[in-house]
């Protein structure tokens, strides 16, 4: 059946293997999402839609870019670590470090859990094509800086939507979803003509697409990755975490090669009864130890 929907941008089709971070069959399937925006049909399991959107030069789902970071992040962290263990003056302590020295210093602090030197390296990401549902979860990570597209200043008539894969793959669910979104778009447009945008936005859905700039230091990223790479995290923020990890591993592999979900790092699951079952739980839940 030909289902005309108000648009589709993309099922996330790649499993994007990261070194040390296998993406399992279960979570690879969940990693998909679409952004709705203009009319297109859903005939061939979305492949046709994706091709059409790509060839039309449209944005394709979630986009994560590392737009800036501390210059030489690994050296910066190594110098900060060396400062702790050395009486050298500022000039000497910041010079003469070989790549082996840098690696050794980073390995030492990571193994010891003495992570404050990693706070000196920061990473700034431009993120778009994510839902307000995701951004609400994201900003719970307090040790970070955020700038998000405002729904007070930027109109949302014709807003795009992130569609969860469970809805995208189910015609009945997608029809219901799309019908509701169409209604919201129409009502929002009418409302925003008679009340300020900041009030019209109260009817916008969690699915509404948003854009952010976010800066986190390395230590906060460790915490973010550990929480959000776990299968217990929701598919959308888990995918964001994987994309971010891929970005930072490119520029600072020595700082990020070891980080992953708790089970990947420690070999057991701290989620207890809530475990996804990927690895045997140790029966102890977070916070009980
Ligand atoms: C799978 C999953 C399910 C979740 N479910 C829920 C839910 O149902 N409801 C809900 O409300 N949240 C939920 N969360 C959000 C979670 O509780 C955290 O708010 C979120 O993961 C941010 O983590 P954080 O506080 O460690 O990060 P940050 O805010 O970046 O803090 C980093 C670290 O700094 C320290 N820190 C920061 N602020 C303080 C402070 N005020 N006092 C003491 N130490 C501090 C802590 O050690 C903290 O771990 C969930 C998260 C995950 C991953």
What this model shows, in words?
- This protein has 289 residues and is an alpha+beta fold.
- Helices cover 42% and strands 14% of the residues.
- The protein has 13 helices and eight strands.
- The model is unreliable at 1-33 and 37-59 (pLDDT under 50).
- The structure holds flavin-adenine dinucleotide (FAD).
- Residues 140-143, 220, 223, 227-228, 232-233 line the site of flavin-adenine dinucleotide.
Q: Please give the number of β-strands.
A: 8
Low-confidence stretches: 1-33, 37-59
Radius of gyration, in angstroms, nearest whole number: 22 Å
β content, as a range?
5-15%
**What's the helix-strand series?**
EHEEHEHHHEHEEHHHEHHHH
Q: What spatial order of strands do you see in the largest sheet?
A: 4-5-8-6
Average per-residue pLDDT, rounded, comes to 82
Class by SSE composition: alpha+beta
Ligands (ions, cofactors included): flavin-adenine dinucleotide
Measured as a percent range, the helix fraction is 40-55%
Distance from first to last alpha carbon: 54 Å
Largest sheet: 4 strands, antiparallel
Count of runs of 4 or more consecutive helical residues: 13
Shape: elongated
């Amino acid at each position: 059946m030909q289902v005309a929907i108000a648009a589709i941008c993309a099922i996330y089709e790649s499993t994007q293997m990261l070194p040390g971070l296998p993406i399992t069959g279960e979570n690879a399937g969940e990693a998909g999402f679409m952004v709705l925006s203009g009319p297109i049909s859903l005939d061939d399991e979305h492949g046709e839609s994706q091709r059409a959107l790509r060839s039309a030069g449209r944005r394709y789902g979630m986009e994560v870019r590392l737009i800036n970071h501390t210059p030489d992040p690994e050296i910066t962290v190594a110098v900060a670590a060396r400062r702790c263990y050395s009486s050298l003056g500022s000039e000497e302590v910041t010079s003469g470090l070989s790549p082996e020295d840098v690696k050794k210093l980073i390995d030492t602090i990571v193994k010891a859990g003495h992570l404050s030197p990693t706070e000196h390296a920061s990473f700034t990401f431009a993120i778009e094509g994510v839902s307000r549902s995701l951004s609400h979860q994201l900003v719970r990570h307090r040790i970070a800086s955020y700038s998000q597209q405002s729904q007070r200043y930027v109109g949302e008539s014709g807003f795009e939507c992130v569609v969860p894969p469970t809805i995208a793959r189910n015609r009945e669910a997608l029809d219901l979803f799309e019908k509701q979104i169409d209604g919201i778009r129409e009502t929002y447009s009418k409302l925003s003509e008679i009340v300020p945008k900041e009030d019209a936005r109260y009817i916008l859905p969690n699915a509404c697409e948003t854009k952010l700039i976010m800066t986190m230091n390395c230590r906060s990223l460790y915490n973010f990755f550990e929480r959000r790479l776990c299968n217990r995290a929701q598919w959308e923020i888990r995918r964001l975490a994987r994309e971010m990890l891929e970005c930072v591993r490119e520029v600072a592999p020595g700082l990020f090669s070891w980080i992953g979900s708790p089970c990947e790092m420690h070999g057991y699951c701290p989620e207890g009864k809530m475990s996804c079952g990927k690895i045997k739980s140790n029966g102890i839940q977070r916070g009980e130890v």
